[in-house]
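Quiz preparation item.
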């Protein structure tokens, strides 16, 4: 495997760690209400924060805020890297069939089975009748079908379908994206500036109407209206980088991105401050006193998203171009871990509600146990005949030389 492929393998493993950690600490945020609302009362706050523990630590609020501004965008970017190569190998019809099997089938099973299991303890927290029968009656009476973190899968299906259509009928836009990536290895700042500019044009108008934490849900299909097109920008940015060649472009191991990792880290941190400070002022009612705070926060989010994404990739290209067995194992089972971890996270948060332990200790237990259990579950399923659906296809990484 090339150095870039090794870095991406390690990065994929690290990213799933962050995803599990993010969900593991949600029960302990200091900014959340003191007690949960009834399960069937709008606006269904538990969709984002399923369990609320009385033990809190505001450090977790900063951690979650810092990940919220970029993490899912970055996952869309990573998801797009090998799409064009897969289309070239398989053709659009076979590619779409495989995507529906790998993403669509787990989405259906996950939403209609795993999410019900994951949210049963959420219902029990405020339930008068905690029986499964009573829960099921409340569950199916909801005006939507909660999808938890699995919303990511159906949106991946959508952007993959668009990529297949482009491959079949209009490949020139992707060829253009690949050409943009051709100089990104030597001049990542130019690519960064273009990404920020396009992101701002897409995100800021939607941010005038929707806040970044607003959700819309129709049946099992949840989306963030402020972010949906912004996610697509990052997916197709990844597709363009992959179409040009992983080792040759932005993510080349000898490129300038990894060599200037400290600059990108500072850029991401600066963007985060530019977002969180005006956002905090807005929450505390300063928007009318200081006009323009909304626009500053929106631009700060765009800058933080790109800067932190570049920083994370740069750090791994600079320091993680060797095989790390633990991260390789995590990478191999990252998809399976993503599918099942939410069940373990929510149940462990629920079981720890009555335990006399400080927030950091509880979060550490939830994170460690959820990671281990979901890893073991993913590894076990991967050994079954159906396991090839969620197993890691390491051949795409090997081909990225």
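Solution:
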């Amino acid at each position: 495997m090339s150095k870039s492929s090794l870095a991406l393998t390690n990065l994929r493993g690290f990213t799933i760690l962050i995803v599990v950690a993010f969900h593991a600490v949600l029960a302990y945020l200091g900014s959340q209400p003191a007690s949960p609302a009834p399960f069937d009362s709008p606006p269904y706050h538990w969709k984002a924060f399923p369990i609320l523990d009385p033990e809190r630590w505001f450090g977790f609020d900063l951690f979650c805020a810092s990940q919220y501004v970029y993490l899912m965008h970055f996952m869309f970017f990573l998801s797009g890297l090998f799409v064009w190569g897969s289309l070239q190998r398989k053709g659009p019809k076979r590619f779409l069939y495989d995507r529906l099997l790998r993403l669509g089938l787990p989405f259906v099973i996950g939403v209609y089975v795993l999410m019900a299991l994951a949210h049963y303890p959420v219902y029990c927290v405020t339930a008068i009748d905690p029986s499964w029968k009573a829960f099921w009656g409340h569950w199916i009476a909801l005006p939507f079908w909660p999808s938890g973190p699995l919303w990511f899968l159906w949106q991946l299906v959508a952007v993959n379908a668009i990529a297949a259509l482009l491959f079949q009928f209009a490949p020139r836009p992707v060829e253009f994206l690949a050409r943009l990536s051709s100089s990104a290895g030597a001049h990542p700042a130019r690519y960064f500036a273009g990404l920020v500019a396009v992101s701002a044009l897409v995100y800021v108008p939607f941010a005038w109407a929707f806040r970044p934490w607003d959700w819309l849900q129709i049946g099992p299909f949840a989306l963030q209206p402020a972010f949906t097109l912004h996610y697509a920008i990052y997916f197709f940015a990844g597709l363009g980088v992959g179409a040009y060649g992983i080792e040759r472009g932005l993510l080349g191991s000898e490129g300038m991105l990894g060599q200037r990792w400290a600059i990108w880290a500072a850029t991401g941190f600066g963007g985060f401050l530019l977002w969180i400070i005006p956002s905090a002022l807005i929450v505390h009612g300063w928007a009318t006193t200081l006009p323009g705070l909304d626009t500053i926060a929106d631009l700060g989010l765009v800058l933080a998203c790109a800067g932190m994404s570049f920083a994370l990739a740069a750090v791994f290209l600079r320091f993680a171009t060797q095989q790390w067995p633990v991260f390789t194992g995590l990478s191999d089972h990252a998809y399976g871990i993503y599918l099942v971890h939410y069940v373990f996270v929510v149940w462990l948060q629920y079981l720890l509600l009555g335990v006399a332990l400080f927030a950091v200790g509880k979060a550490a237990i939830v994170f460690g146990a959820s990671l281990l259990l979901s890893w073991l579950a993913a590894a076990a399923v991967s050994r079954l005949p159906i396991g090839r659906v969620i197993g890691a296809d390491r051949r795409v990484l090997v081909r990225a030389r």
